[in-house]
Structures are given as structure tokens and as C-alpha cells.
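Can you give me the bound-state structure? Components:
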Amino acid sequence: MATTSKPFVYWGSGSPPCWKVLLVLQEKKIDYDEKIISFSKKEHKSEEILELNPRGQVPTFTDGDVVVNESTAICMYLEEKYPKVPLFPSDTTIRAKVYQRMFETSNISTNVMEFVQYKMKNKDSIDQVLLKEKKDKAHVELGHWENYLKQTGGFVATKEFTMADVFFFPMVALIVRQGANLKDSYPNIFKYYNMMMDRPTIVKTMPPHWAESDSPGNLLDLC
Amino acid sequence: MATTSKPFVYWGSGSPPCWKVLLVLQEKKIDYDEKIISFSKKEHKSEEILELNPRGQVPTFTDGDVVVNESTAICMYLEEKYPKVPLFPSDTTIRAKVYQRMFETSNISTNVMEFVQYKMKNKDSIDQVLLKEKKDKAHVELGHWENYLKQTGGFVATKEFTMADVFFFPMVALIVRQGANLKDSYPNIFKYYNMMMDRPTIVKTMPPHWAESDSPGNLLDLC
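Here's the bound-state model for the whole set.
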């Protein structure tokens, strides 16, 4: 178990929930300790993790006596415990927009990742009608986000970086790594992606194994 | 579109996300207007809803100029906009527990509902090995919640009703309706269920069609 009184996070490379937590820690300039676990060695099922998180999942997070393991719960806890660099605007109406975009990102997992997973699992027996249906859904989903970014002209919920970007960006990075070519069909998402890739907290928290291994290929060919 | 300055919610009977929003409105004693839509008539895809929510889903929610449609975002907005009856404790450490349980409920959908859905979809061709696997998962999941309730001796995150109960109770009610017999294996969840069924806000927000139609049967036979 972590023998520190600083916030401590166990995380695995490439997991969007872990990435969210790292991003909040970095954006808020919180002094923390960490341990990277290997999914392939099943270290998330180690006794060290299970003692803190009976589900055997990462992120697993402690801060003194506080143990929180759901990534969204960790993000909310950090926002409230370390308010110096807020990731929410103060106005209730604008906060509502931030919450809306934060929780709306789960649709990207469903609607875009399903297309990727269908292609991965059915390499030799793709049903072209089903594939087109899933691709259309992915396009509709990305269309929503393209519009949101066009409206703000900046980050995903407002002109400023907020908690909504913490939730949204890892999904965008994931779909780019899966082979999405955003440039032509989704110019605002593409612009956002490039802007974020220059952000120091993103540079610092990019999944380390992405730099070491090739992307899985053009699974998200959306043309 | 809603022609009211009061909070206005479009909702459908039996949808846990809709139920969460109604529960928050009722618990916080907020004066609101509502419109019940019929899923079978596809009213969630009506122009009236699509104008406010391009995803064509309920809940769809407005409060003056504010439009929020993700159920969790609506709950957080209501908590902040109408703080008179708080659904979160003030202490950051205890709030962390509330957040943890709120977001942990998504595991019930995955681990318990998958068992139900497998049985529904494969009535005539059930693979007993796969069925046992899914049943074991459901038991592990319910075991977590049984423990949590044993620890608090009251509601799901603390001794008091909190936002975590808003997220958790609709899932419990759903699994009971699907046929789960909690009494013997999960006495603390069973006790919690019965306590909540007497709560005025629950009585008031129970899915109306549940009173009119039979439950789908013993799909969650966990013995």
C-alpha cells in the first residue's frame, strides 16, 4: 500500500480513466506520487491494488485516509480538495454546460469505439451492412462534437480549458491513435487535437506505451 | 418546447436516468413542470425533444435558458442551483465517498443487467457455462453493495440519504423487478430496498407503468 501522505495514484498506460486523473493532478499542479502498473502482467489484480480497490481496477487513488477509485469521483474529489486551480467556472449556468459535456463523452465510447471493436473482432467476416450502420453512428457522434467545438471556438465546453476537456481529450487522442483522419471531415476536432497536443499537461501525461509501440492501424477509417 | 420558466423535465417511465432526475427534483422540493413521453410511440425522437436534445433521448431538461440532458449533469446542476436541501454532505472526505458510490453504480448495469439480458436474448439456446459466468459476476457485484450497506447501516454512502442513493436505488428497484430475490443472499440490500420503498419521494416517482403491467418475470433468479 502507498506509504505516503501525498495523493497517490496507481495507473495503467493508455486507459482513458487513468489519463483523466493524471490530467487533473497536472492541471491543478498537485504534488503527488504514482505507480504505473502493467495491464499485461495483470498488476491491477495484485494484492497491493486489491487491498485498496476490491474491483482490481485502475485508477486506484489514495490521499491520506481517503480512498477513491472511480475516475470521475477522483476528479470531483480533487476539484473540491484542491481548489486553487479550478477546472470548473464559477457561474452555475456555465458549469451546467461543463457537466453536460463531461458526461456526454460516454457516448463516444459507445458510438465510435463500437465501430473500432467490430472491425477488430470480425476481421475476416465483416458484414458490410452492419459495418456501415456502425460507421454512420460514429459519424453522427463525431458530428455532435465538431459542432460543439465550432460553437465555443476553443475548448470543448467553453473558451477555456475545463473539466470537460479532461474527459473529452483522452477520447479524441484514442480515436486518432485508432486511425481516425479528422482533418477533412472534422476540422474543428482536428484543430482542437493539435492545440491540445501542444499543452504541457498533455505532453507530460501521454500514454508512455504509445511512444514505444505502433498504433493498431487504420481501424477508424471514416472516409 | 417548454413554455415555462420553472425547471421542466421530459421523462419516460422505467428509465433509471429519468428516475434519478425526478428523485433529485422531489428530494430538493423543487417546483417543476414535466411531460411524460412514450418510448413505444418513439416520442423521445419527436421534434419537440430533438429541438432541445439532438440525441433524441430523455431525460431532456430545461431551466429558463439552461438546457441540460445528461442525467448526471442535470443532478449536479440541480444540486448547485437549488442548494436549500443538499444531497451532498459538506465534508470533502465524506463527499468523496458519495461520489465514489454514485459513479460505481454503472458497474451494476454492466455486471447484473448483462446476466438479465443474456437470459432474455437467448431463451432457447442458453449456454450454461456462459450463464454461470455471468451469474457469478452478478453475485460478485451485488456482494460489493451488500458490504457497503452493511458498513453504513443506513443509506448507500453514509447513514443519511445522499446523491449516491439517487443513483443506486433505481438500479436496485430494477433488479427486484427483474426477479431478484434479495431476502436470503443479500439481507442488507433487501432491508435497504424495503426502507426506500416507504420513502415518499420514491413512492411519488415509481415508474407508472410498473404499477400497470406485470414484471418481466424471474429473469434474475440468482439462487
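A couple of observations. Residues 63 and 184 of chain A are 44 Å apart (CA to CA). Chain A touches chain B at residues 54-55, 65-66, 68-73, 76-77, 80-81, 92-93, 95-97, 99-100, 102-104, 107, 144 (CB under 8 Å).
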